[in-house]
Each structure stands twice: as C-alpha cells, then as structure tokens.
C-alpha cells in the first residue's frame, strides 16, 4: 500500500 | 587507545537489542570528545538508526583519537548476552588493533569476564541529517507507542499518522477491516504517563509498521518516546537515556502510488 521512499532521497551523502 | 566503562552495563545490552534486528554490520565510532556513536541504515536504505552514548555518560572514558570499529551486531549481541544485567561493562580497543575487548564485572567484583570480538572492515555510507524544525513533536509513554504499533500491525502493514488540534490519530487498514487509535494530550503530572503534542501545522504521513515495530525494540531504554514529524519528511523516533545518550530512528514515508 503506497510506494516506499528511500531515505537517501532526504539526507545528504 | 579507547577505553570506556559503563557502570550500568545493562544499558549497552539494551542498546544492542535495539539495533541488531535492523542492521547486520555497522561501524561504531569512538570519539575523544563526543563519545561512542553509531549511524547505520537497514539493508534496503529505508530507515536509519543513529545512537550516541555521551563521553561523560560513562563512568570512565578515554579515547586518544577517533577510532572506527566495524562489528557484526549479532556477534556483539552474543557476547553482551554473557554479561549479567547488574554487571559493569568496559570496552577496550587499541588504535591499530583488530579486536574490541569487553570486560564484565559483577557488582561485588567476584566474577570478571573478558571477551574479545574480532573487528571487521565495513564500507558504510554516512548520511548528513539536516537540522530541521519539525512541524510536530509528540512525547508519549514508550510502552504506549509500542502497544499501538504492534496492535495495528495485526490489522495492516502501514500506519497513517495524522496530527491535528484534536490529537494524534494512528490508522491502518487491512483485509479484515480498519483500525484507528487516537491519543489526546493529557495533563499528567506523572512524567511517565505524559502525552504532549506540540503542533506547528497539521501533518498526515504514512509509514511501514514493520520498521516502526522494529524501532520499539528500544522501549526498555526509556519510559518516554519522542516522535517528530514534518510534511513529506522522514519520521524521527527517539529514545533518550537521561545523562547517558540517545537512540534515534529515521524512517522514510510512503507516498501514493
């Protein structure tokens, strides 16, 4: 249910 | 060299129990001023755990230079399981060594145990977590949060958390039906039972219950949990061990397909 987003999309490397 | 002694060794046992289901191998960082830290993502890069035990949270702390110690957390947990809950635990490592030593001391010093865990080289990505003002901060009994996550996981796979002036509503839906649990701010003087909701703007986000349930493994570390939410940002679930440190979990939200 819904698409799981990746954490790397939010935090900088 | 690195040497750190926790009089209440049970805290380190509980910390390990809080991360070992989420992360297999991780680099612990010992820092001369900051303390003993870990940051690691789960294998699918959906969640992150960040833990820190402050240098002055230890009864004794010595760290001559920053030291990275790669450990298999299941193996570390095996060793820490051999410590009794009443034991003091001391960690020791040489700067160029390939092992970390754990010493367990019983309260009366009549039993001393030495364990050595082999260190490993781990490639890990360190993420920069921006300092953010969150729209919502919820403080509630950690046992209550655990109860809600495990109850809802029997009905559905995801939880929608919506926060408004009315309170915080946890909702799920599954094949057998729906469930909603609403918590309201209370005026409990008893800090352990306190529910407080700081609301900047209403928030409605959806998260995978599997990860939230894994975060609640940290419940024995703290009577209260702090949950921070902002629109379209990962949730932060934090357990603070007063005067010792904290463990924070981050989980990316789900979005509509």
Describe this structure as you would to a colleague.
The complex is a heterodimer of chains A (13) and B (257). Chain A has 13 residues and is an all-beta fold. By secondary structure, chain B is mainly beta. In chain B, the strands form three sheets. In chain B, strands 6-2-3-4-18-17-16-10-14 form a nine-stranded antiparallel beta sheet. In chain B, helix 3 runs antiparallel to helix 4. Chain B starts with a strand and ends with a strand. At the A-B interface, strand 1 of A face strand 19 of B. Strand 1 of chain A pairs antiparallel with strand 19 of chain B, so a sheet runs across the interface.
Topology:
The complex is a heterodimer of chains A (13) and B (257).
Chain A: E1 3-4
Chain B: E1 2-6, H1 10-19, E2 25-31, E3 35-41, E4 47-54, E5 60-63, E6 67-72, H2 73-80, E7 88-93, E8 99-105, E9 112-118, E10 136-141, H3 142-153, E11 158-164, E12 167-174, E13 177-183, E14 196-199, E15 203-208, H4 209-215, E16 224-229, E17 235-241, E18 245-251, E19 254-255
Antiparallel strand pairs in B: 1-5, 1-7, 2-3, 2-6, 3-4, 4-18, 7-8, 8-9, 10-14, 10-16, 11-12, 11-15, 12-13, 16-17, 17-18
Helix pairs in contact in B: 1-2, 3-4
The main pleated sheet of chain A reads as:
none
Q: Tell me the radius of gyration of chain B.
A: 19 Å
H-E order of chain B:
EHEEEEEHEEEEHEEEEEHEEEE
Instruction: Tell me how many strands of chain B there are.
Output: 19
The number of helical runs of chain B is 4
Keywords:
heterodimer; A: 13 residues; B: mainly beta
Write a compact overview of the structure shown.
The complex is a heterodimer of chains A (13) and B (257). With 13 residues, chain A is mostly beta strands. Chain A has no helices and one strand.
